[in-house]
Amino acid sequence: MFNIQQYLKEQRQVVEDGLQRYMLQEQGNFSAHIQSMRYSLFVGGKRVRPILCLAAGRAVSASLDVEEQLLPAACALECLHTYSLIHDDLPAMDNDDLRRGQPTCHKKFGEAEAILAGDGLLTYAFSLLSHPEIPGPATATRLQLIHVLAQAAGSQGMVGGQYLDITNEEKDIPFDLLKTIHRSKTGALITAAVHIGGLAAQADKKQLQALINYGDAVGLAFQIVDDLLDVTASTEQLGKTAGTDAQQGKATYPAFFGLDKTRALAQEAVHSAQEALASFDERAEPLRALAQYIFNRTC
Question: Which of 59, 131, 150, 258 is buried deepest, with most CB atoms within 10 A?
Fold first, then answer.
């Protein structure tokens, strides 16, 4: 039986080692700025997105050299994700004091410094993907990875989803708009993670579409579970302030459907994700297990 906890422990270490290898060091005139970037990047986290990226690459190709072809891209995903968390926590956004059980970047360093730390991580992600002296796939494939990540992160992906999220607080919105918000602000980057893994491993068109379908379903499940945890978990469990969705008047799945129906919808999304991988062999077992792990997580 596949041991997801052992797998996650091993893969987190792979990602941590990659981040330590590729992340800027605190030195020179930019030392304090880089310190604030590193603080949020290394304060903790499950590293779900880079792990999904690595797992997708391995599902396509047993011979893929992960460290040479995919690890820098996986690290770029985590840099970009961390930028989004820093900006999410700002007073103008979700105004949160805690992230992963520690003071948020703006509480630790100041608001302006946190904005710039996020900006630095965002742009460094693309530096990692494009740097000629950092290992990675061929130039044409790198261009594809950059395009996929930029699309997922931008105004019709994560940033657009965040915009819709904050501008529709305290409003009665249709369910279709809620799905758009969830698929954009959370799902887009998760889908990009497996898309990038597939591209780097030279997936064919059918494999790539299957991975995208998987990512769409897993991304939706992830955000639905986040909605649930905001209602059911404590601040200590979450590592961030619990109950903020209701306080800020955000549209959520529990607000639409209640807890039991929301859990059922999250499990349906996980089932859809696993079904999307029907054409893959046992190399995709980590992806299948990751989908169920996302449903089962408690924080």
Answer: 59
